[in-house]
Specification:
Blueprint: H1 9-12, H2 25-36, E1 43-47, H3 54-66, H4 80-87, E2 93-97, H5 104-114, E3 124-129, H6 136-147, E4 153-159, H7 167-170, E5 174-177, H8 183-196, E6 200-201, H9 203-212, H10 217-231, E7 234-235, H11 237-244, H12 250-260, H13 264-276, H14 281-301, H15 311-321, H16 326-338, H17 340-345, H18 349-385
Parallel strand pairs: 1-4, 1-5, 2-3, 3-4, 6-7
Helix pairs in contact: 2-3, 3-4, 5-6, 8-9, 9-10, 12-14, 13-18, 14-15, 14-16, 16-18
This protein binds zinc ion (ZN).
C-alpha cells in the first residue's frame, strides 16, 4: 500500500529541537541553559496565544532532559527516550488536556503517578495543557504536589489564560510568556514547508496566508494545507483569493481613489456593483477603515515597514498616501470610526453605507476647499505685504 501523500503540515513539520522552533528564542535559550547548567525547576508555566509552540517546547524540553545522547542541551531524537516521547508513548511523560480532563480525579491520577520513580527516564514529566480549565479542587490537589515535589518530577503547565490560574500555583512556577509570531516569521516557515512539500507558491500568497494565521503558525499551516488541497501544487494569488473568498485589496484602493477625487458619481454605482456581487457590507466597512489606517501610518511616519502587507501592496499605499493630506486622512478615519456603532444597529446597512460614502466624498472636498482657501489667503497676505 502506498503512503498517504499528504500529512497535516503542522504535525509533519513540528519542531523536534529547540533550534527548530520558530521564534520564542528567549524561552528556548533559557531552557537549554537550564539543562546545561543542571538548574532545573520543578514547575514551569508557559503562557501565550494558541498555536505559538507551548506544548511543542514542553515536549522538546522533556526530550532534551531525558535524552541519552543530548548535545548542547538539544535532544538527539534517535535514542529510545527521544523516540517514545516524540511518538507520545513514553511511560514517564504524561500529557493531560485540562480542557477535557479538568476534575479532581484527573489530578489524583497525576498524584498517584507522581509517587513512583520514573520507569526509564531521569525525570517524570507532566505536561498539562490549558491548565486554567482545572476545577478549584483539582488546582488544590495540584498545589499539594507542587508544594513538595519529588526530585524526579517536572511539571509543565501551559495556558492561553494565565490570569485564570490561582496565584498559589503561578508563584511556584518558573514563568515564560510566549508571544504571537510575526508575519515574517510565519512566512519564512511557510516558505520552508512549501519547498519541502514541493509546492510552488508566490510571495503574495505566502504573505496572505501568514497574515491569516494571526500570530499562530499552526493556524497558518492549516490554511496552507487547505490551499494546497484547493489549488494543488501550484498556489497562485488569484486562485487563493477565490478559494478564501476574500475581497480584493484593490476594491479599497479604488474606493479611496474615488473619495480622493470627489467621485460621488462613480462611487455609489461602484459600491452597488460590489454589493450585487455578494460583498458583505461590514467587511467592506472594516476594509475601508483598515485602508485609511494604513494610509495614515504611511502619511505620518513614511515607514512602510509598519504595515502588515506585501511589498507590492506597500508601494501602492505609498502612492495613494501622496494623494491625500494628513488632515484629510484623519478626518475620514474619524468619520469611519464614529460610524461603527451606527452600522451595528442599522436595519439597512446598504443605505447607511451609501450615505457614509457620500459623506466621505463631501468631507474630502471641504478639506481641500479649506486648504485651498488658506493658501489663497497666504498668497494674498504676501501680496499685500509687498
Ligand atoms: Zn535522545
Amino acid at each position: 500500500m502506498s503512503e498517504p501523500k499528504f500529512k497535516v503540515s503542522a504535525l509533519k513539520f513540528r519542531p523536534q529541537k529547540f533550534g527548530e522552533v520558530v521564534s520564542q528564542d528567549f524561552v528556548s535559550t533559557t531552557l537549554r541553559n537550564a539543562i546545561l547548567n543542571k538548574k532545573i525547576a520543578h514547575s514551569y508555566l508557559f503562557s501565550g496565544p494558541r498555536g505559538v509552540g507551548k506544548t511543542t517546547l514542553a515536549r522538546i524540553f522533556a526530550k532534551a532532559i531525558n535524552c541519552k545522547n543530548a548535545k548542547d542541551g538539544e535532544p538527539c531524537n534517535n535514542c529510545e527516550n527521544c523516540d517514545e516521547i516524540t511518538r507520545g508513548v513514553h511511560p514517564d511523560v504524561f500529557e493531560l488536556d485540562a480542557a477535557s480532563n479538568r476534575g479532581i480525579d484527573d489530578v489524583r491520577a497525576i498524584q498517584d503517578a507522581a509517587k513512583y520513580f520514573p520507569i526509564k527516564a531521569t525525570y517524570k514529566f507532566f505536561i498539562v495543557d490549558e491548565v486554567h480549565m482545572l476545577t478549584i479542587q483539582a488546582f488544590n490537589a495540584l498545589l499539594k504536589i507542587l508544594e513538595e515535589p519529588p526530585e524526579y518530577l517536572i511539571f509543565i503547565l501551559a495556558t492561553t489564560n494565565p490570569e485564570k490560574i490561582p496565584a498559589t500555583i503561578t508563584s511556584r512556577c518558573q514563568r515564560f510568556a510566549l508571544h504571537r509570531l510575526k508575519i515574517q516569521e510565519i512566512s519564512d516557515q511557510l516558505k520552508f514547508v512549501a519547498k519541502e512539500q514541493k509546492v510552488k507558491i508566490d510571495d503574495e500568497s505566502l504573505f496572505l496566508i501568514s497574515k491569516l494565521g494571526d500570530g499562530a503558525l499552526r493556524d497558518a499551516l492549516g490554511v496552507f494545507d487547505m490551499a494546497v488541497s484547493f489549488c494543488g501544487e501550484n498556489i497562485d494569488f488569484e486562485s487563493l483569493k477565490e478559494f478564501l473568498n476574500l475581497p480584493d485589496k484593490d476594491i479599497y484602493f479604488e474606493t479611496a481613489k474615488f473619495i480622493a477625487q470627489d467621485g460621488l458619481k462613480h462611487i455609489i454605482p461602484y459600491f452597488n456593483k460590489l454589493e450585487e456581487n455578494g460583498l458583505d457590507i461590514i467587511t467592506y466597512y472594516n476594509g475601508i477603515t483598515d485602508h485609511y489606517r494604513n494610509l495614515l501610518i504611511i502619511k505620518t511616519t513614511d515607514n512602510t515597514e509598519l504595515l502588515d502587507e506585501s511589498d507590492v501592496t506597500k508601494s501602492k499605499y505609498k502612492e495613494q498616501a501622496a494623494v491625500y493630506t494628513g488632515d484629510q486622512i484623519q478626518r475620514i478615519l474619524k468619520i469611519l470610526i464614529d460610524s461603527e456603532a451606527r452600522f451595528k444597529y442599522s436595519s439597512n446597512q446598504k443605505i447607511l453605507m451609501e450615505a457614509l460614502l457620500a459623506e466621505l466624498c463631501r468631507i474630502n472636498r471641504e478639506v481641500v476647499d479649506i486648504s485651498e482657501l488658506i493658501s489663497g489667503l497666504e498668497a494674498l497676505k504676501k501680496k499685500s505685504l509687498k
